[in-house]
Automatic annotation (TrEMBL):
GO biological process terms on file: heme O biosynthetic process
NCBIfam families according to UniProt: cyoE_ctaB
Keyword Glycoprotein belongs to the record: no
Species the sequence originates in: Lentisphaera araneosa HTCC2155
Gene3D superfamilies noted in UniProt: UbiA prenyltransferase
Name by which UniProt lists this protein: Protoheme IX farnesyltransferase
Gene name tied to this protein: ctaB
Amino acid sequence: MGRVKSFIELTKPRLSAMAVFSGSAGYVMARDPNMSFSMQNYLGLLWLTLGLSFVGAASNIVNQAVEHKLDKKMDRTADRPIPSGRVQMGEALFFGHICLAIGLYILFHFFRPEVGYLALFTYVTYVFMYTPMKTKTALNTIAGAFPGAFPILTGWVANSNNDFHTLPQTEWWGFFPFAIVFVWQLPHFFSIAWIYKEDYQRAGYKMMSLYDETGKQAVILIFVGTLGLMAVSLMPYMYKMSNGWYFLSACILNAGFLCSSVLLLINRERFMKQYFYASIIYLPLIVLALIFFPLTTTP
């Protein structure tokens, strides 16, 4: 059982669950808001969840296999299955590629090809672009935001092949939730980089915090990122994807999130973790608002 537990741990269940939630949310958002969810939609959601779960697991497993030497240098990652010796790197790579094959098979088999290609592109950008960039440039956070945001777009594409999304006004709506998740990641990961700056420095990761002794740069980036997120979050309402209840929800969430970023200007040492936790609360709530408050009349 110990070995099984180690292999499950390699998949990073909580991180994979976030990607699956994002993809599933995109799928539900893409429904025709004037029609009820059919049994076919529920089955599609099930297959999408399974496919994205396997692809997400593969990304996390291979990422850990590639970074296991660096993980050994950081306190918070030293006990992961590979650096701790509970799983060999070759075993992890084999397991990761099996998961990738299963996930892609499901997505290509049950959905149109674009869905499988988006999932594959997510895997490739995460493992072969973002992962090596972490030790080479502080721009890795921006690069990593792409594979982090692709699942919600993948879910949207999986369920947007209907008459409602052939309308000129609606065919680009899927990029609004993608943009929200993309921009959200920037201040979120800037806060993580500051909180764990010593760990990242010890492992040789080129995070923004490496060049920011005082934390002022981190606070500025987080504050600007938060303002950008506020603007992007209002796009679904502005372009008639969501209704007034979404607008009200977004305003309330944005006000709370902005307050948490303002507190950083007062005392970054004290409030950085609070901002991090606020970001974790913000994303699922804004996504749920997108799901529950669509504009139900045809634009």
